[in-house]
Amino acid sequence: AAPLPEPDTPGPRQPVVSGGGLSLLEARGVSAWFGSHRVLEGVSLVMGAGEVTALIGPSGCGKSTFLRVLNRMHELVPSASLAGEVLLDGGDVYGRGWRLQDVRRDIGMVFQKPNPFPAMSIYDNVVSGLRLTGRRVSRDVKDEIVVRSLVSAGLWGEVRDRLRQPGGGLSGGQQQRLCIARALAVRPRVLLMDEPCSALDPTSTRVIEETMGQLRREVTIVIVTHNMQQAARVSQRCAFFLASQGMPGQIVEYGDTDAMFSEPQDERTFDYVNGRF
Ligand code: ADP
Ligand code: MG
């Protein structure tokens, strides 16, 4: 096979498949239920363009549910229901004119456990992300997208000579970056990351954190993390979720990450960020 095009320096070429770019994502008064069990109540949050927003809080307070509401995965659960609005650059993603597929394309997701297609090649794993476009893409454009996505995911240098090898042969941290590359293939406007490093070793975690520092220049990032040091390292804004005494999950405190860690305004935030529960 012919060698793939080298990325232009200083940055890679950027073939546009989706809108791409930095977008403002806003939740307004989001409440979510599974059957009669309300897990979120009146959650409002602005996730700024070009920023990393970290969602922190104890297990079970609705962080993953909130992410799934943002990209309409929540509605795939038969018992699930929802109130409120999710606006992407001002347009309600639950409104008319948005197909589910368009929302998934513009708001990508990466999960805790790296889930590339293990038997599929690294190249095809990235290309598989394009299924969300519903468009045929030429071989040349695919090549460019694969290079661009792997560069953005911080994986290109490690896999450029083995693109035809199976994704399952990579280390855990590399597999997670492959999943990030797959999500980036369509040039999403927002990337949701649900504990993306929880299954990884500290070295792989640091590599992904460094990647995120670059990535936020091209995609708005929302990350759920249990790791307070990680939240402090990667995010500019932070929202603390809490579901106390049978109450549904709510945002207790939101703000600039540095300020929230150094001078939390709410006693419960103070206790949480200092590992008291
Ligand atoms: P977190 O990510 O903060 O740990 P989750 O969003 O996963 O919290 O869960 C919030 C609450 O919703 C929990 O009580 C959980 O048991 C419940 N829940 C999550 N997913 C489902 C589901 N598919 N069906 C029913 N209940 C669910
Ligand atoms: Mg979760």
From TrEMBL:
Listed SMART domains: AAA
Span of domain ABC transporter: 25-273
Biased composition, class Pro residues, residue ranges: 4-13
Any one Pfam family match given in the protein's UniProt record, by short name: ABC_tran
One term of GO molecular function: ATP binding
InterPro entries: AAA+_ATPase, ABC_transporter-like_ATP-bd, ABC_transporter-like_CS, P-loop_NTPase, PstB-like
PROSITE patterns in UniProt: ABC_TRANSPORTER_1, ABC_TRANSPORTER_2
UniProt keyword terms in alphabetical order: ATP-binding, Nucleotide-binding, Translocase, Transport
SUPFAM superfamilies listed in its UniProt record: P-loop containing nucleoside triphosphate hydrolases
PANTHER family for this protein: ABC TRANSPORTER I FAMILY MEMBER 17
Protein name according to UniProt: Phosphate transport system ATP-binding protein
Species assigned in the record: Brooklawnia cerclae
